[in-house]
Amino acid sequence: MTLPPPPSGSVPPAGGSQQPHGGQQPPQQHGGQPPFGGPGGYSGANPNQPPAWQQAPLQPVPPRKRGNGWKWALGGVALVAVVGVTATVTLSVANKGGGDGSSSATGAPPTTSVSGAAHSDIASANDTGPVAVITEDPSCATTDPVLVAVQNRSNNGWEKRDPELPATAWSPEIRGQYEAVGQALRETADQIVASAKLTPHRVMRELYEQFIAYARAYADSIPSYTPIDNHLAVAAISAADAISRICSAIGFDSAAARGPLAPALPEPSEVAPVRDPADAQRLLSEPNSICPEWDSAMKQFATNSEPWRAMSPDIPVTEWSPEQRRVTDEVVAVMKLFNTQLSALGRRSENPALRDLADLAVQYREAYLQALPTYTPADKYLASASIRTASVVASACRALG
């Protein structure tokens, strides 16, 4: 993926950009969305095509601006979910010493929860407020090296596998690839627990927990793997991908610039009980009645947003052609409908964690819509964080058949 240019007048961190890790980068689609017939393998794409950690650049990104200077950012980490096609993501992290437990883009403190005392090592335990665009998160920094490591370990041939091939048909070489990736995912899940505890945001913790739960579930499935188990890997990678995009939006300041403009959500009537992230549970343990409609909404969005998704996200609004302006104007109604659908389905699910993920997808899409009149390339991370979060739910549904 080609990173957006740094803000005017800024300079990248020392060292400059690096060559792509593992080869040529795929072309970037608008909003950071994959060039697919539907996110998460939807709308015409093969739903069983394998996810993979994309061979992609590990290059530095501009840190957040402070006064007249720049503080350091961690280098990027690329992660991808290939579900029908390939998409690349780069994680950028701002080194901001906040972590005050704020639960919203405006910095409001979280509502106090009685569960907080029982989970004093979980920074988000007291966050019971509405989901909002995340403008800073200390866990981004701790996540970066962990995802770099698992990306490197999983480029062993597994990314080229045929997910339709059950374990009973594997050659010794293929079995070895699966087992190595399963072990890498299991170890990464264990390492991500610390980041899940560190984030002050409930919904970010829930994304970490979904990576942990589905990465472990996929690793557990490998001895008797069948094609449906591929969706476990897709769910895990989608969660990690969403986290990466959220951190990129922080690092490029699009979250801080646009997040406060998204209409605030009401206080939730209920939040999921706080549990030790080391014991993370899958988003869905049984089919949820909203799954077919979630699937349909994502297919509809993929189809109706196709012209917009074909646009380059690296062109600022000041350089849009009349055709690009027309396409963007037309996709606004498509995005608003998609938000309405996901918001309603999240509420109907009667699953507080699923509702949080629906709200997160909606908030990032709302922030993107607010950005359009003055769009810059950094704003693409808002749109891609939204679709990746929605894809976590889609894959969780598909993993149940």
From TrEMBL:
<feature type="compositionally biased region" description="Gly residues">
    <location>
        <begin position="34"/>
        <end position="43"/>
    </location>
</feature>
<feature type="compositionally biased region" description="Low complexity">
    <location>
        <begin position="11"/>
        <end position="33"/>
    </location>
</feature>
<protein>
    <submittedName>
        <fullName>Uncharacterized protein</fullName>
    </submittedName>
</protein>
<feature type="region of interest" description="Disordered">
    <location>
        <begin position="95"/>
        <end position="123"/>
    </location>
</feature>
<feature type="region of interest" description="Disordered">
    <location>
        <begin position="1"/>
        <end position="67"/>
    </location>
</feature>
<feature type="compositionally biased region" description="Low complexity">
    <location>
        <begin position="44"/>
        <end position="58"/>
    </location>
</feature>
<feature type="compositionally biased region" description="Pro residues">
    <location>
        <begin position="1"/>
        <end position="10"/>
    </location>
</feature>
<feature type="compositionally biased region" description="Low complexity">
    <location>
        <begin position="102"/>
        <end position="113"/>
    </location>
</feature>
